[in-house]
Design goal:
235 residues; Rossmann fold; six-stranded mixed β-sheet; alpha/beta; DNA polymerase, domain 1; 13% strand
């Protein structure tokens, strides 16, 4: 049986072969304030990186998944000043899947080990995040590329830019409203609006009618109808 290290090497080799063969590669949104080492590392692996201002995360790898990258020093400081959990709340509200990458080989030990482990435990158990530790920017890029590859090329999920900015047109507002439903990226949202003609008609459609849209299966249709028709009860 292969060890964890051997398995990671197999994954890395697989990703490199896919890129070298000229097949489709992953696309990633990166915040313009992010490390050039990480962005260069992503591009070196064949990723198409679009650098722009991101309102919520550091990297977006699919319509549902984002990455927040912190150096070990910044991770410690964000625990001390409370910023970590403010960011966690915003990330949780915007994405189904969130990965926190803590980069660097040594903590500065400005907080004790118990507080550090408590913060990591909270991110995992209270927020449902995944937390990874990498030694440098290149290893961070390797992890982010693997996530994007898995989401977009293996699972066929779309890349979607999540923003706090307001839509400018009625059509954009309608699309954002439909995209807020689980599992609906830009393409499916546009397909639904084109097919049904309005948000109201989408809401009134039954499960069978929703499944007339390509790539909208019975499980997704059932969940959408449950969300749209269930009575609201405050948590």
């Amino acid at each position: 049986m292969a060890s964890a290290i051997e398995k990671q090497e197999l994954i890395s080799n697989f990703l490199e072969k896919k890129t070298a063969s000229g097949e489709q590669v992953a696309k990633i949104f990166a915040d313009e304030r992010e490390s050039e080492e990480v962005i260069s590392g992503l591009r070196a692996r064949g990723a198409e990186v679009q650098v722009r201002i991101l309102d919520i995360s550091d990297f977006i790898v699919s319509e549902r998944a984002a990455v927040e990258r912190k150096t070990r020093s910044d991770f410690e400081q964000s625990i001390i000043d409370g910023r970590l959990f403010e960011q966690a709340a915003r990330l949780q509200a915007a994405f189904e899947r969130v990965v926190i990458i803590v980069e660097g080989e040594k903590f500065q030990e400005r907080i004790n080990k118990k507080a550090l482990l408590g913060a990591v435990s909270s991110l995992i158990l209270d927020y449902g995040f995944s937390v990874f530790f990498t030694k440098d920017g290149d290893k961070t890029a390797e992890m982010i590329y693997a996530l994007a590859f898995r989401e977009q090329l293996a699972q066929k999920r779309e890349l979607k830019l999540v923003s706090n900015k307001r839509a400018n047109t009625l059509a954009q507002m309608q699309q954002i409203m439909v995209e807020s439903l689980p599992g609906l990226g830009p393409k499916l949202a546009k397909s639904l609006l084109s097919h049904f003609g309005s948000v109201e008609n989408i809401v009134n459609a039954n499960e069978k009618e929703l499944q007339e849209i390509e790539k909208l299966g019975p499980k997704k249709a059932k969940l959408i109808k449950k969300i749209l028709t269930s009575a609201y009860t405050e948590d």
